[in-house]
């Protein structure tokens, strides 16, 4: 049986190679993701160890609340270390030296007057550490900064943006801009910078001003006397620290920094693995279809084996052995493909400005094991049903006509398919509307069950849909293609299922993006009263001085900044906005059900009506919250508003925000033109300010709406590119099915040629068959994608996605492109079918 299994594999090399591509691409996505993230983690773990090599002990405040997810970007640092505590640390026995360090927002302006941007990495200002043993930073050119007005920058930024020693530059900070001279360029051992971030180092005195230190420090780095171990010194220092501060050894701090980075970058792994899962899910349908068809075509062969004494279990093991060999080889090839993909992703990071530290790509045993388990497991799972079918082939089948009989829809299939689909829809709706703790997993599982249900039901309408799709084809080749697609609706539907999944996800993403754009446009039209909107491409925000200088122009009746932060409520991370209650109503429409924006004072909060209703809050009630820097606080509700589409669910005054957050950067500034000031005068006033702050962009309402839409379009394009892998796999599945179909119909094709059918007609027949199957799958996917999109939009209606928008033109384009993909998938099988020798084809059994 082993020899028979291996011979069976070798007899179908081309078909199995095409099927293997499904496993290779899916496993490559998985292994590439792990190789990339493991390499990043390994490089930064080594870099952090190198940076902390001379630090015996690091002292920091303990965060009283740690934000999770996207809220991490809004500056949720712990309380700073006061100068008095630095003095106490320096007096601890065994401390040779101790220096305070600061970091915060600082952005360089290049020689062309443009702000240096990093594509998402932070633009940091840091205080220079004078003791060389406490820092791994090495001066590459020039010298260390020694006075106010002198700075040093990282070598990566200097090389990329053309900065040099002696160059005068402008540095944008929280307050007024700083004019300084570059006196040094530094690196971190062999690394030029940190994950593409720009670093500007000030002398400690100027860092206190530029980074708003207020006489305090973000951390204290400690060097030990000779012979004093880091753990002993850590314990001594901890004894003099008040509650809320923690001492760690340099090694412990390096590991904590590495762990934090891994946690912050985990979203990359999760996102890429989701797309890998989709690709493998698509591949599973193709593997199932291939093995099911091969088993059906080998009915006589398997029956002869049974007649010669092979048991059903032996036949089943034979098919599973073929799947094991096939899956193992494809998984190993996929692992190699993943290595190449990791190299490509590494380059993509660099292209987006996130320069990774140098180091070799890491292929750890876990990656190899996961790749083989995922690839082999997917293959065995997809081939299990065909294997059991093969075991059920009776010996008498060897004497029968191997041609399959006409397909008759089963009542059991209909009932079972409806039950599975209903269960999937129920799980999907539970995850979207039921707010369970594991909503994401439930939604994903529900979507997979829906796909299974639709696949079970699809043979019921594959024949009528194929008849309709093929109706316009009036030629002989076209009519035969339609009949071929209708002949075996189970095969047609299972082949189309792979493309259905890919197109369903593409349609879902397109509908979701279109709905977000339409909702955002409506939100801006209904709630935004400002004439100009100031934003930045940096996630960290921009200087408060922008709003100050806009006010000073006198061209605006209201200039209202908005800041963003996070806090904890009952262990959950919540986002809030810091606003100016005096100017907010002039630039944003804030409908109130009770209370007033004007009542918002220090220590107060305005709450969105649904949030208040869900928590049974009323005006006058105080709610307990936790901030990372200041710990437990109570905010008094002074008003409830009914529209959160632009403002979120919590609003506090700027004084409240300033008291509870260390970083004070504006995320948005809204400006209203003063009465009597023309649009042209306001525009000139805006331009006079933006010249001083090249990191910001000022747009009117129309321009802002268009920029928001273009950002959504870019994200849409990224998602479609990632989903292309699953669509490519589906196209290979169509090609594979056509190969199998041609093999199955060898004699039939020979007879058609014998009665006068030309080669080009045979080729046309196969191409049209591939097109019909592809369009059928695309239509199924579009319908499922529309349903997914509708469910998601309705689930997010309280988050501002209020309009369900279907981009008809885009969906039609996807269906047309799918048809073209099916046409292309049929080119090679059509060429092979057209070259069949007529006499040999007729003689085939």
Query: What's the number of extended β-strand segments?
Result: 24
Return the structural class.
alpha+beta
Task: Give the amount of beta strand, in percent.
Answer: 15-25%
Q: Which residue ranges are poorly predicted, with pLDDT under 50 across at least 5 consecutive positions?
A: 69-76
Mean pLDDT, rounded to whole units?
Answer: 84
Number of helices: 25
Which radius of gyration do the C-alpha atoms yield?
Answer: 33 Å
- Helix content range of the residues, please? 55-70%
Distance between the termini: 23 Å
Largest sheet properties = 10 strands, mixed
Name the overall outline: globular
Plain-language structure description:
By secondary structure, this protein is α+β, with helices and mostly antiparallel strands. The chain has 25 helices and 24 strands. The strands form four sheets. Strands 15, 16, 17, 18, 19, 20, 21, 22, 23 and 24 form a ten-stranded mixed sheet that branches. Strands 4, 5, 6, 7, 8, 9, 10 and 11 form an eight-stranded mixed sheet that branches. Strand 16 (556-569) and strand 17 (572-579) form a beta hairpin. It is globular, with a radius of gyration of 33 Å. Residues 69-76 have low confidence and may be disordered.
In short:
By secondary structure, the protein is an alpha+beta fold. A hairpin with a 5-residue loop joins strand 9 (168-172) and strand 10.
Strand and helix map with partners:
Layout: H1 2-11, H2 13-51, E1 57-61, E2 81-82, H3 83-90, E3 95-101, E4 103-105, E5 107-109, E6 123-127, E7 137-142, E8 150-154, H4 155-161, E9 168-172, E10 178-188, E11 198-202, H5 204-210, E12 216-217, E13 219-224, H6 230-240, E14 245-249, H7 250-297, H8 299-307, H9 312-351, H10 365-391, H11 411-433, H12 439-470, H13 476-487, H14 489-527, E15 532-536, H15 545-552, E16 556-569, E17 572-579, H16 584-587, E18 592-595, E19 604-608, H17 609-615, E20 622-627, E21 631-641, E22 650-653, H18 654-660, E23 668-673, H19 679-690, E24 696-700, H20 701-744, H21 746-754, H22 759-795, H23 808-825, H24 827-834, H25 838-843
Parallel strand pairs: 6-11, 8-10, 17-22, 19-21
Antiparallel strand pairs: 1-13, 1-14, 2-12, 3-13, 4-6, 5-9, 7-10, 8-11, 9-10, 15-23, 15-24, 16-17, 16-23, 18-21, 19-22, 20-21
Helix pairs in contact: 1-9, 2-7, 2-9, 2-10, 2-20, 7-10, 7-14, 7-20, 9-10, 11-12, 12-13, 12-14, 12-22, 13-22, 14-20, 14-22, 14-23, 20-22, 20-24, 22-23, 22-24
